[in-house]
Structure formats: C-alpha cells, structure tokens
Amino acid sequence: MTQPTAIIGVVGLAVMGSNLARNLASREGNTVAVYNRSFEKTEALLAEHPEAGFVAAKDYTEFAASLARPRTAIIMVKAGRPTDAVIDQLVQVFEPGDIIIDGGNALFTDTIRREKAVRETGINFVGAGISGGEEGALNGPSIMPGGSAEAWESMGPILKSIAAVADGEPCVTHVGTDGAGHFVKMIHNGIEYADMQLIAEAYDLLRRVGGFTPAEIADIFAEWNTGELESYLIEITAEVLRQVDAATGSPLVDVILDQAGAKGTGAWTVQSALDLGVPVSGIAEAVFARSLSSAPAQRAAAQSLPASTETWSVDDRDAFVEDVRRALYASKIIAYSQGFDAIVAGAAEYNWDIKKGEIAKIWRAGCIIRAQFLNRITEAYADDPELVALVTAPYFADAVGSALPSWRRIVAGAALAGIPTPAFASSLSYYDGLRADRLPAALVQGQRDFFGAHTYKRVDREGTFHTLWSGDRSEIEATDTH
Ligand SMILES: NC(=O)c1ccc[n+]([C@@H]2O[C@H](COP(=O)([O-])OP(=O)(O)OC[C@H]3O[C@@H](n4cnc5c(N)ncnc54)[C@H](OP(=O)(O)O)[C@@H]3O)[C@@H](O)[C@H]2O)c1
Question: Which residues form the signal peptide (predicted)?
Fold first, then answer.
C-alpha cells in the first residue's frame, strides 16, 4: 500500500499539468503525487524529472492513497467533459474535507454546477483560473481560485508558494465563492484578446502608414515597453517582429498565415457580457477580428470590392508614432475599464464579493496581461472602492484626455485610408458614447414604443408613457414594459 506522503497531487500531465507539478515539487518540503489517464505520460515525466521526487499513481485509488489528509488534488485536463470524468473518479476515492481544484480553463457556469454537486459529498471543490501558459505553470502563474473560504484557508499557503510574485506579493487571492475564479480568469482572457488586437492594429498602422519595417517596429515596441505601455504583450510583440524566417530570410510575421485562431475564452467573455448587459465592445471587436481573419472564402470574394481613394501620408513620422502610441494606450484603458465593468456585473449577478483592486494586483505578474499599468487600477479602486467606471478615475481620465487628439487623428485617418482599426475605433466610440450628455437612445425608445408599445420615460416628469401611434397620437400614462 502506498504511504500517504504527498501533500498535493496533480491529475493530467500534459504540458500545463506537468509544469505545475514540477513547480509544486520544486518548493521546499513538497512531495507531489501525479496521475495521468494514460500512464506513458506519467512515466515520461518521471524519467525526465527524477529530481522532482514525484509519487506516481497508476489509478485513482493509488493516487488517493498517496495523498496526506485532507487530500488536495489539482486537475489539469482538457476542459469540458474530461474535467467531469476526472471529478467523478476523484469523488469516488476522496473523503469529506478533501479538496479538488480544477485548474483548467473551465467555463464558470460549469464550475458553479460542479461546485454545487461536489459540495453535497462533503468534498470541497475549487475552480481556479491559472494564467501564464506553460512557462507560468512552471515558474509561477497568476492564480484565481474560487470556492469556499474553508478551502482557501487550507490550500491558500501552497498556492501562494507556487504563484508568481509581484513587488513581493504572491499573485493569488481568494476571488470569491464557486465560479468566481473561473469567471475572473475568463475576463482576463477577454482583456488579453483586446490587448493583442490593439497591438496588432498599432503594428498595422506603423507598417502601412508609417512605412516602418517589422524590425523597426520591433524597436518602437521595445521603446514603448520602457514607458506607460510596459507589459509582457508589448515585450513579446517586439520579439515576434524581430524574428527572421530561416527558410526565406523574410520577417517571420510576413510568412505567417494571417488567420488568427481562438480557443473560446474570448467568445465566452463576450457571451457572458451580453447576458449581463455590459458593453465589452473592445473585447468583442477583438474576437470578431479573429473570426473575420479566419474566413478565407469571404475575404477572397471581397478582394475586388472598392478600396479607399485616399492615401494617408505622414510628414512627421515621429509625431505619427506618438499618435499611435497614445491611441493604443487610450484604447487599452477602455478595454480594461470594460473588463472591470464585466467583473462588477458578474459579482452582482452571482453574489461574489470580488475585490477589484486585488484582481488587478494578482495580474501584475505570471499572467499574459501582466503590466505595471495594473498598479494604477489597484490604486484607483483603493482611492474609490465604489468607482463606477475605471476610465473616470482621475489617472485614467487624464491619460485618456491627453491622448484624445491623437486617438481621434488615428481613427479618422484609418477610416479615410481604408485601414481596419475595429478595436481602436470601437473603443473611441464607446468613450464618446459614455461621456455623451444625450444619446440617440431616446429615438430608439420612440421606435420601440411605436412598433411594440414598449413605453418610454420622459426627461421632465416621473412615470411611464405610451403614445397612441395608431390612434390620435396623444400620450397616455402606461405600465412600464421595458
Ligand atoms: N492557463 C493557461 O495559460 C493555459 C494554457 C494552456 C492550457 N490551459 C488549460 O489547462 C488545462 C490543461 O491544458 P494542457 O494544454 O496541459 O492539456 P490539454 O491538451 O488541454 O489536455 C490533455 C490532458 O487531458 C487529459 N485528458 C483528456 N481527456 C481525458 C479524460 N476523459 N479523462 C482523463 N484525462 C483526460 C489527457 O490525458 P491523456 O494523456 O491520457 O490523453 C492529458 O493529460 C486545460 O483546461 C487548458 O484549457 C491553460
């Protein structure tokens, strides 16, 4: 019989699980149990990393027997049915008080369902978003656990020990109950989509309008990475743009097929935001831009459509680069502002007590959107925990305000020249919509009342009203049918 020596176990030893297991094993005093459905992966991991001292299990019974009580296991398998299959097995061999952590990219509503079902057995279930890809899993990811306070108390120390560290603080916090962790991880990924699309639009403008080569643009991004845009995504963009294809001698970016893939978390963010009624337009445009890029038949058919007759030539290239930089920063602020709006709305809908400033803090290292800029978000929520929109916080309002002339020049110039900037343009439109004194929504309400008697409210009187459109067009007081 296996002795219960391991303090934690990992189920699923593909790239993420094996790296996380190695990370856990590398911490002082940790013995880690490992299990994978097909034993070959377990054997390969053991052979490649004898230094980790893994306790390998061939089945779930052995796995459970190797774990000290209360048992804690992290599942790192393909999200969806495989996760359910593993949970079903673990529930058979675990006992009340044990903890099952799902570290995969689960849809948060699945996590809510799973947490409820597993709780009935007395076992704790924790959905934990883990960001940072394979490198993060190995060296320190940003971890977003949900689940009960009791489970957090028990597993918090070990998660803190393996998380990335930013300014001396581990990038992990108890996000909220049940699906809160996976919800916040989903929003993180949505923001990541927006950030990447905005960077791609900046690159496209620098290339097509500024006339810079990929290597020159790499230098521009490297320079931007020393200022307020400093972030992992800006840093890796410079690296990608500097890369030369060995086979052709061309910049690698020129030989990569221009069809962007997606694994679904961006779409989930937008779907959830639609349900919550939160405009995450920057994120939505980023998801749609990938969809458009991946529709080759439509793109081929549309090649013959008229282009712009305007050309956009810039006399002062330095000023143009600065305009693009400012437009990028302002649009990025909007993407984060919208992402945090979705977090606030999700917290209200699902009864989660999410500390926005803490979320910004745990994204400062380990994850894909890591950036110094996140400190500003933490500060904004520290100054005003009830802040209604991030973009209205003094620092961000100033930053967007000073970027505004550049932002408008870039969006207008791109529209005239026929260069697509869906994320830049929608972010600017969102900004103008948000700050508008009066919106054409009044007309929409009038239309809704006309065809569907949906009623409207007035600016000058309390109450709900309807115009008798097919009668004498007089106005009556009505029951609210919004
Ligand atoms: N945070 C990030 O940056 C990031 C990056 C990548 C992935 N992820 C998430 O992390 C998780 C693991 O990702 P990954 O790329 O390492 O692996 P993956 O390719 O998503 O999944 C492969 C693993 O799932 C196991 N598996 C599949 N179906 C199973 C089933 N029915 N029962 C038991 N095990 C099953 C496989 O076992 P076999 O070897 O037996 O087939 C293998 O261990 C996923 O949820 C993924 O979405 C996160």
Answer: none
Q: Are residues 164 and 195 in the same domain?
A: no
Same domain, 309 and 259: yes
- Within this chain, do residues 397 and 452 fall inside the same structural domain, yes or no? no
pLDDT tens digit string along 69-111? 999 999 999 999 999 999 999 999 999 999 999 999 999 999 9
Domain hosting residue 142, numbered range: 8-174
> In whole angstroms, what is the distance from residue 363 CA to residue 184 CA?
11
Give the burial class of 345: count Cβ atoms within 10 A of its Cβ; 0-12 exposed, 13-18 middle, 19 or more buried.
middle
Ligand 1 within 6 A of CB of 15: yes
Q: Could you tell me the distance, in angstroms and rounded to a whole number, from the CA of residue 183 to the centre of ligand 1?
A: 19
DSSP, residue by residue, 91-147:
HHH--TT-EEEE-S---HHHHHHHHHHHHTTT-EEEEEEEESHHHHHHH--EEEE-S
Residue 180 forms part of a structural domain? no
Q: Which two tokens stand for residue 211?
A: 């006339």
CA distance 325 to 338: 20
pLDDT greater than 80 at residue 2: no
- Mean model confidence pLDDT for the chain: 97
Is 105 marked within a binding site?
Answer: yes
- pLDDT(247) > 70: yes
The reply, when asked if residue 433 is annotated as ligand binding, is no
Say how many Å lie between the CA of residue 282 and the centre of ligand 1: 29
37 Cβ below 6 A of ligand 1? yes
